[in-house]
Amino acid sequence: MRASDYHCRMEEADKPRGFWLVVWDWITTIPTLLSFGVVFAVADVTLRVARLFGEHSVEVAAGVMQRVLIWAFFPSGVRVKIERDPEVRSDHPYILVSNHQSFFDVPIIGGVLFSNFPKYIAKKELSKWIPFVSYNLRRGGNAIIDRSAGRDAVRVIREFGKHCQERGVSAVIFPEGSRSRDGHLKEFKPVGVVQLMKAAPDMDVVPTTIDGSWHLLANKMFPIPFGTRVRVSFGRPILREAGQQAEEVVVEVREIIAANLDRWRIEAAT
Question: Is 161 helix (H, G, I), strand (E, B) or coil?
Fold first, then answer.
């Protein structure tokens, strides 16, 4: 069987969870949601206080709280396994191009790559009403776009890329456009990545793969499946070169992500 067959048939191999395991899911979900809510509330206040001391203080506070947010899922047995290429350096700006499965992807990237200070491109709806998240998007140097306004969205992405390169912070983009609700890799929309690369020509591209986080929202967190395993790969940076076609880099990144997903699922099936 080819790797792509595993990728396409991954969901067919999933088995229903037994009654007592579902009961345990509910029992462990309660403390997880409580800790989750506390972290969100504390993080929102922390960022507002940090804002008084400047943009960099907000970045540091956001990184700390994103790492704490990962720990908030531990009562549900959620564990994160990280693969990080040795050439992905700390304190170095990158363009991280990643697949997208869950809101959990953001604190994983922000918490693990704390010293790279990742910034995100997010839809405007997320900037309005979510404690911690919305304030960080508005005040943390991120890009907020209206996906229905194509030209304006491109302009915001280009300004965002330029700002990230000037400040020496990383930029994160999810070119699928929206999260995958079943873990399957969707087609990439290359425009945003291409414009980001053009606006930040000195920033290397890191292919980023995330798998398993979609399980956390499979039931909209009611309950959270106990023992979810999330895997993340920060691949070898693709160095920027003169004459390099951004569209070709997008294709290469998607192939790397697809290969990682197939490899992990083959490992899980054997």
Answer: helix
Dihedral angle of Cα 167, 123, 234, 182, to the nearest 10 degrees: 180
The average pLDDT across 1-28 equals: 67
Q: Which of 5-19, 70-84, 142-156, 158-172 has the lowest mean pLDDT?
A: 5-19
- pLDDT(239) > 60: yes
Rounded Cα–Cα distance for residues 197 and 104 (Å): 25
Collapse the DSSP code of 172 into the 3-class scheme (helix H, G, I; strand E, B; otherwise coil) and give the result: strand
165 touches 203 (CB < 8 A): yes
- The CA-atom distances, in angstroms, between 157 and each of 19, 116, 120, 150, 153 are 47, 19, 10, 11, 6
**Cα-based distances in Å from 89 to 126, 149, 171, 193, 243:** 30, 35, 15, 21, 25
| Preceding omega of 223 cis (within 30 degrees of 0) | yes
Q: Is 80 exceeded by the pLDDT of residue 1?
A: no
Q: DSSP letter for 76, please.
A: G
Angle at 187 between CA 214 and CA 212, to 5 degrees: 15
For residue range 216-227, list pLDDT tens digits in order.
988 889 999 999
What is residue 4's predicted lDDT score, i.e. its pLDDT? 43
This prediction's pTM: 0.91
Closest CA to 211 of 40, 3, 7, 2: 7
Distance CA 224, CA 32 (A): 9
User: What's the Rg (C-alpha) of the chain?
Assistant: 18
